[in-house]
């Protein structure tokens, strides 16, 4: 396994009215994050939250190119970002113990925190298609350039790691500074990961290593 320190690019927040940041996603322009009672967004070129949707948002957040998906307790809600309307709801595989959420190859990928698992889920029915077992608590989850990455957070230690999607083997680890946790994770499709910071109320952008060949 390749291990290195995470390179901090920038930091956002804390945001007014937000006590904790859960899931994080990116729609190509705005970073969306779970802020507890709201799903809020901001332009990463700026710093202040610019939009918010009144929906329970404690854990993972994802974007499929058209819609937002948000974990709320034991459910995953599909949301129209323009109107804020909830369009559909499916069960979350962890029955309330869910954490990260990502969209890739037409399916949702859901972290199950204390069970140390990542589930691939049918976005229409909630059916679990397959499960990957990890060796640490799973927080945020993201796919980028055929690579599966997830955040971890245990005690004061947190990292962002690339794993083999077939075996769960850890291939690479980006160690976060002591005291900086990762509650949510999303790639911008380029050289950045956006990391939710839990009760700090902040989001940290770190450098993503150069892409390697692979596929989900």
Keywords:
216 residues; 4-stranded antiparallel sheet; 21 strands; Methylamine Dehydrogenase, Chain H; WD40/YVTN_repeat-like_dom_sf; globular; 5-stranded mixed sheet; PQQ-binding-like beta-propeller repeat protein; Quino_amine_DH_bsu; mainly beta
- Number of individual domains: 1
Residue fraction in strands: over 45%
What Rg is obtained from the alpha carbons, in whole angstroms?
A: 15 Å
**Major beta-sheet overview:** 5 strands, mixed
Average residue pLDDT:
93
Question: How much helicity do the residues have?
Answer: under 10%
CATH superfamily: YVTN repeat-like/Quinoprotein amine dehydrogenase
Protein name: PQQ-binding-like beta-propeller repeat protein
Organism: Rhodanobacter glycinis
InterPro entries: Quino_amine_DH_bsu, WD40/YVTN_repeat-like_dom_sf
Description:
This protein is mainly beta and 216 residues long. It has one domain (2-207): Methylamine Dehydrogenase, Chain H (7 Propeller), CATH 2.130.10.10. The protein is built from no helices and 21 strands. The chain has strands spanning 2-5, 8-12, 24-26, 31-34, 39-42, 49-53, 61-63, 68-72, 75-79, 86-91, 98-104, 107-112, 117-121, 128-133, 141-144, 147-154, 157-163, 170-175, 184-187, 192-196, 203-207. The strands form 5 sheets. Strands 1-18-17-16-15 form a 5-stranded mixed β-sheet, with no helix packed on it. A 4-stranded antiparallel β-sheet has the order 2-21-20-19, with no helix packed on it. A hairpin with a 6-residue loop joins strand 13 (117-121) and strand 14 (128-133). The mean pLDDT is 93.
């Amino acid at each position: 396994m390749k291990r290195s320190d995470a390179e901090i690019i920038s930091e956002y927040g804390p945001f007014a009215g937000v006590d904790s940041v859960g899931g994080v996603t990116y729609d190509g322009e705005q970073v969306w994050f779970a802020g507890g009672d709201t799903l809020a967004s901001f332009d990463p070129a700026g710093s202040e939250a610019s939009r918010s949707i009144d929906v329970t948002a404690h854990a993972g957040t994802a974007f499929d190119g058209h819609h937002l998906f948000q974990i709320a307790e034991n459910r995953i809600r599909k949301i129209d970002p323009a109107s804020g309307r909830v369009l559909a709801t499916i069960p979350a595989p962890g029955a309330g113990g869910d954490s990260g959420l990502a969209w890739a190859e037409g399916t949702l990928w859901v972290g199950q925190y204390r069970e140390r698992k990542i589930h691939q889920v049918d976005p229409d029915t909630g059916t679990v298609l397959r499960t990957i077992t990890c060796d640490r608590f799973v927080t945020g989850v993201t796919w980028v350039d055929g690579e599966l990455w997830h955040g971890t957070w245990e005690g004061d230690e947190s990292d962002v790691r690339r794993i083999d999607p077939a075996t769960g083997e850890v291939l690479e680890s980006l160690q976060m500074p002591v005291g900086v946790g990762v509650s949510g994770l999303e790639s911008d499709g380029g050289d950045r990961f956006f990391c939710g910071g839990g009760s700090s109320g902040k989001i940290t952008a770190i450098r993503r290593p150069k892409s390697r060949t692979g596929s989900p």
